[in-house]
Amino acid sequence: MQSQLTPKQMRLLRKLYDEGKTIEVHTVEKTQDELAEELGITRQALSNHLKVLKELGYIRTGRGFIDLTEKGLELLGERRGDVFVFVRIEPTKRKGIYERIKGLRIKRVYRVTGDVDLIIEADKSQLDEILEEIASMDGVKETNTHVVLEAF
Prior knowledge:
The protein is α+β, with helices and mostly antiparallel strands and 152 residues long. It has six helices and seven strands; from the N terminus they run αβααββαβαββαβ.
């Protein structure tokens, strides 16, 4: 499939990926007709409700799918699975480790002051992969992982 894209399209795709941010979604792959029928409302009424939810940022819609956004999941109390990994690094190895960590599948990374050098925010589903990769980095002195139980 990649061979069908022009170099500019590949460059654009890479730029979108590099500059994008990871967001949590929950995708529903049903038609609006199916949802309206299951809810016992008209297709037009469903469309109006979806429009409001979309404007408020709780969902994104497209052809054949509806995504509940991170904001929507939080409203429902369903945002789970966040972890924070605190990382201590040998001072002489920081730059190299910063670059390697940027390549991991994480939500955010913060360079901080205090007893740790970095705080990595990630999805719990990626934790084993992230910890394995960090452990293989020369210069990482210590990690300390915290799993989010609840957000207030």
